[in-house]
Every structure is written in structure tokens, then in C-alpha cells.
Amino acid sequence: MAYNDDAVLAKLSSLSETQDSIVSVAQWIMFYRRHADRTVQLWLQKLKDSSSHKRLNLIYLANEVAQQSKARRKEEFLVSFSPAIAEAVTAAYKGAPHDVQQRIRRVVDVWRERGVFEGPIQQAVETRIHEIDKTRGTTKAGGIGGSIFGAASSVPQELTPLVAPQQNVSKVVQSVKPAVTSAKSDYDNLMAPGSTVPSAPVYAARLSGLLKTLAQAEGAVEQCVKARRELVSELQKLLDTNRNALIADEDELEDVLTKKLRVEDKKNEVERAIMAGLPNDEPYPTGGSSLDDSHDQQPAPEVEALTPPSHDGEGGEDEEDDDFEPEQAGSSNEAPEWQPDFTPETSTLPTHPSPPTETSQQTIPAIAKSIATAANGAKKRRIDETSDFPDLGAEDGIDADVAEMLRKDSNAS
């Protein structure tokens, strides 16, 4: 059977609710997919003129054709059904019995689950069904397997501005394609190279008719362009809003990650404190400094200074007075024997130790100047290096022989 309007209407009229009938008619329609636009127009008109159960069969037919086209990646019928499917479902759903409505709901659910139609088209179908239910006051909680048309499944508030422009585009596109197709066909028949040119009056009449056809196509396309610009404008607003929200969310994410890292560092610090022996009943210091810094800031314990031993190997406590008291050799009652720090050139003179006297014990400290030195409090002697011999004074109680020996040695040098 060749393709024409009568053949299509005959196939649609013979459609029954059985699966074999639906599959057979769907295969015949898909065979002539190059006539998809015309077939969809005839299908929509037949659906509007049919009863409720017949409309359900035509919805089943559209479902079979659309799913088979998507599975075979033949987009002709998907493109043709997109602008008409929302109107068709509305016509089939409105005024139908409850069981028919439930079946139509199930078909729309399948379209959503399998992504048969694009999101805006699917949303437009669901919105129209929801409006019908809302008007009748019979909004159901869900269809078979959980319908998407409950009260909680309404159009999101952010997408509400997109519904009307998308529906307008769908309506306009339905009238654009036939007008543009007819205009292109008439133009090719009349203006294509090698086409037969009729007589002048006939040619002028045909050109006039072509101008009218092109004007109709121009008006349809202008309406489509206007509708799509409105849709794109709403989409751009939605895109800008979501882009700004995305930037804010990214900033929030960075802030949360920073706080997370700080908490992880603090957790590791507390665990180290626990391992170091922090008492369980002692609160953890949270002054902002680390555990190591808090330990460093503790005052150092007082430590008693150590007194180093004296140069002669004898230890003792420091004395408060600055007078030097020589260490005593042997008994504490005997004065030490004084000897010069040089070797005499002659050793003929005997060395006579001077007996300990009170005068000598008082003059010996004048040999050195006692000074207080570093932090340990130890006292040291510093010999006056301005002369070779210390100034012992005139009457200091030195033995006469020793004084004579020193005088000779001084004159000899």
C-alpha cells in the first residue's frame, strides 16, 4: 500500500488494543519515516476525533513508534512527535475514565524512566496532566509503580518560567515545518536549474503563488525565532543564577575544607598530648598555641648554682668578705712558706723559712688583689704585673738575709 493520507487514516482506524495490531501499524508507519511530519499531523487529528479508549490505543501507538525510533536511532518521529505529544496526551487524558487516565499516566512514566523525549517536552506533558488533575481536584498520590504527578512532583519553582516558553516553541514548531517544507518544494520546482519554464502569464502566476508560500513560511519562522529567543532568554537567566550559585557553593566548599583540615590538625595535636601523658581529668589547653609552645612558656624551675672546686683542690663555701685568706698547708695554725716564682741565679745562699708571725700574716694578703668573678661566686687572685716583684713595703717583717738576696738579684739584673 502506497503512502497517502487515506492509507494513513485507514491504518489508524484499524488499530485495536492488541499488541499485534499496535506493532503492525507502528512498523508500517516507521517504514515511511520520511513522511513523519504528515503522519503525526494525521495521527493527532485522528486522536482528537476519537473516543476515550480509541485515544488510548493511539497513545500506545505513539509510544511504540517513539521507543522503536529511539532504539534504532531514527530521530524523524521523535522530532515530529515532540511538538504535538503534549497536546495529544492532554486531549486523551482530559475527560477520560479513571482507568484510562491511570494507563496514560503509566505510559508517561515509562517515557520519563527511559528518556524517550527531551526533558522540556517531558516536563510539559507532566505539567498539563497535573493541571487537569488540579482543576478536577483529583490529584493522585501516584500511579502504577509510583507516578510522578503527585502534589510533591510539581514543576520546581526555578523551572516554572521555562514551561510557558517551551510550550510556545512546541506549538510554533508544529506549524513551521509544513510551511517551510512546502515553500522549499515549490521553490525547487519553479526556480531550480533545468526546470521547465512555462509561458509568461502562467510563470507570473506561479511566481506570485510562490511569493505567498514563502511569505507564509517567513511568518512561521519569525514566530519560531521569537519563541525560541524568549526561551533562550529564560534559560540564560536560569544559567546565570546557577552559575552565581555555583561560585558561592565553591567558596563554601573551600571554607569547609579549610575548617576540616584545622580540625584534623587539632585532633592530631590532642592525640599527641594524650600519648605524651596528659592526665585524663585535666582540661586540654585551648589558648590558641600549640602544645609544644605551651610547654616552652612554662617558667624554668629554680636550680641551685653549683660551686666549682678551688684551684688547690679544696672545696669550701664562698666568703662574704673580699679579703684573701691563703690556704694553709698542714696544720691550720701554721702559715705557708713564701717562695718567689723564679729560679735564683745562684743557689749559694740558704733559704730560711720565716717563722709565722702576726705581722707577716697581715701583710701577705696585700700581695694580691681579691676580685669577685662570674656567676658562681668563686674568688680569684690577680697579681699586679706592673713590677717583677710585689711591693712588700719597708717594714713588712721579711727576714734580713732574704731581703739582702733579693736586693742583690735586683741589682744584678
List keywords for this structure.
413 residues; mainly alpha; two-stranded antiparallel sheet; 2 strands
Structure commentary:
It is a single chain. The protein is an all-alpha fold. It contains twelve helices and two strands; from the N terminus they run αααααααααααββα. It has a two-stranded antiparallel ribbon. About 19% of the residues have low confidence.
Query: Shape, please?
Result: elongated
Q: How much of the sequence is in beta strands?
A: under 5%
Structural class: mainly alpha
Report the span from N to C terminus. 154 Å
Portion of residues within helices: 55-70%
Mean pLDDT: 74
Total of helices? 12
Query: Could you tell me the number of beta strands?
Result: 2
From the structure provided, what is the oligomeric state, counting identical versus distinct chains? single chain
Order of strands, widest sheet: 1-2
The major beta sheet can be summarized as: 2 strands, antiparallel
Task: Calculate Rg over CA atoms.
Answer: 58 Å
SSE pattern: HHHHHHHHHHHEEH
| Contiguous runs where pLDDT drops below 50 for at least 5 residues | 138-153, 289-296, 313-324, 328-332, 344-350, 357-386
Short description:
The chain is mainly alpha-helical and 413 residues long.
Element layout with pairings:
Blueprint: H1 5-13, H2 19-31, H3 36-48, H4 52-71, H5 76-93, H6 98-114, H7 119-136, H8 160-191, H9 200-275, H10 291-296, H11 358-363, E1 368-372, E2 379-383, H12 400-412
Antiparallel strand pairs: 1-2
Helix pairs in contact: 1-3, 2-4, 3-4, 3-5, 4-5, 4-6, 5-7, 5-8, 7-8, 8-9
